[in-house]
């Protein structure tokens, strides 16, 4: 276990170093002044420029500049936004939880709907029920996420008028962003009607969560179905049936766990797709997450915000991917033996 943890720790640190180096290189690749791209501060005169150049080591060799940049990131000094003038750490601290919240609800939807449907389709393999579920999952998975989001807006918001068109909360509620997660912030808020606020927040969450979660759910259905079909045709399942073991006992003793183990590693791949889809959907629903924030930074040519925002998103994806893969290793240590055997 210690060896696995140390290996993943080294992998995590090396990956972050590469991401940080790429982020720092953008300072020179973006158009404009290097000092402004790095700090977000526009010097008022040459004296201030020279002082800032010395402060951020821009008059030193590239390696010295990079390590000073790395130390600044670790200390929480991420620079300032050229558009708003606010510290980037504060802006990302508000935008990132909104994206994580949306992605979390979509993933829960995929787990609690996609996996049971996939199990059911796999157990009813090649029947009419299986063909129906499989066809629906393939069709849903084929939809571009932005197209599906637009269809939901057109139908539920414009035609039926049963769901809000944009935002996280109505203007009637003034909720202080303590954690950045709207449902938790409502619980912590005072002097409001919590029931009404929760209903309003859930109505705003419904459509973007459905747009992201539908595609992820369809993917989980297909992955789970394929895994269950592989398991039920294994020799030990045939042997259990020959001994007269009931189908329910076979399912709970053998199929449930053994079909789930191949699914878990594929969840790490789904995380990247899930967060990418969330960032796309945010722009359509005006959801104040990191995706909408980055789009605004592109429109405003806010290069410091783009640099730090891309680093933050990359770090989040890498962190979640490594955590999921590490969790898979812990619950299924036999993977190590098979992977070493295939090298």
TrEMBL record:
UniProt key word Cell inner membrane: yes
PANTHER family assigned to the protein according to its UniProt record, in alphabetical order: DIPEPTIDE TRANSPORT SYSTEM PERMEASE PROTEIN DPPB-RELATED (PTHR43163), PUTRESCINE EXPORT SYSTEM PERMEASE PROTEIN SAPB (PTHR43163:SF4)
Cellular compartment(s): Cell inner membrane; Cell membrane
Keyword NAD in annotation: no
The protein's name in its UniProt record: Peptide ABC transporter membrane protein
Taxonomy, superkingdom: Bacteria
Keywords assigned: Cell inner membrane, Cell membrane, Membrane, Transmembrane, Transmembrane helix, Transport
Organism, scientific name: Alteromonas naphthalenivorans
Main location: membrane
GO terms for MF: dipeptide transmembrane transporter activity
SUPFAM superfamilies found in the cross-reference section: MetI-like (SSF161098)
